[in-house]
């Protein structure tokens, strides 16, 4: 995680395959994928180039609700989001915001810390499943 609370991992797969692997990992754990936002397609619609760049929005109310009970403003950052993107050299990356950083950002109390820790571990697992060999 960097100082902005973002974790970025290299993927061993194409953007499409990384996204498919992420979706499969989410489904396997019963996590709802709310939306995919294909920024490159949006850029193409207005005649501008953009390398593959897709946001996946997903969540599970059982995991996010305890955080929102501690501070409803965290709803600005929930449900969770993952960005899958390709850099100028062709390397595919997966970036996400760390739930522990979010807990600190919103000064969540100790009662919410275990929920944030569980969410961080689950999110790291989804990222590894999407990007790994």
Quick rundown:
By secondary structure, the protein is α+β, with helices and mostly antiparallel strands. The protein has 5 helices and 5 strands, in the order βαβαβαββαα.
State the helix count: 5
Query: What is the number of domains?
Result: 1
In what order do the strands lie side by side in the largest sheet? 1-5-4-3-2
Note the run of SSEs as H and E. Answer: EHEHEHEEHH
- Can you tell me the CATH class? Alpha Beta
Q: Please give the share of residues in helix.
A: 40-55%
Distance between the termini: 21 Å
Query: Using DSSP, what is the number of strands?
Result: 5
Rough shape? globular
Strand content: 15-25%
> Major sheet, described briefly?
5 strands, antiparallel
Mean pLDDT: 95
Give me the CATH superfamily. TT1751-like domain
Q: What can you see in these coordinates?
A:
There is one protein chain. The two termini are 21 Å apart. The chain has a 5-stranded antiparallel beta sheet with strand order 1-5-4-3-2. Helices cover 43% and strands 24% of the residues. The protein is built from 5 helices and 5 strands, in the order E-H-E-H-E-H-E-E-H-H. Strand 4 (80-86) and strand 5 form a beta hairpin. It has helices at residues 15-28, 39-45, 61-70, 99-105, 113-131, and strands spanning 6-10, 32-38, 53-59, 80-86, 92-97. The protein has 133 residues and is of the alpha+beta class. The protein has one domain: TT1751-like domain (TATA-Binding Protein, 2-Layer Sandwich). The longest helix is centred in the C-terminal third of the chain and has 19 residues, at 113-131. The mean pLDDT is 95.
């Amino acid at each position: 995680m960097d100082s902005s609370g973002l974790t970025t991992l290299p993927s061993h797969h194409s953007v499409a395959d990384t996204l498919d692997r992420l979706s499969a990992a989410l489904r396997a754990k019963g996590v709802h994928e709310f939306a995919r936002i294909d920024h490159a397609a949006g850029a193409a619609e207005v005649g501008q180039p953009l390398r593959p760049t897709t946001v996946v929005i997903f969540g599970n109310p059982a995991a996010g609700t305890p955080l929102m009970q501690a501070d409803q403003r965290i709803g600005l950052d929930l449900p969770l989001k993952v960005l899958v993107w390709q850099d100028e050299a062709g390397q595919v990356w997966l970036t996400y915001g760390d739930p522990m950083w979010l807990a600190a950002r919103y000064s969540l109390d100790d009662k919410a810390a275990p929920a944030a820790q569980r969410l961080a571990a689950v999110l790291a697992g989804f990222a590894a499943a999407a990007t790994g060999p």
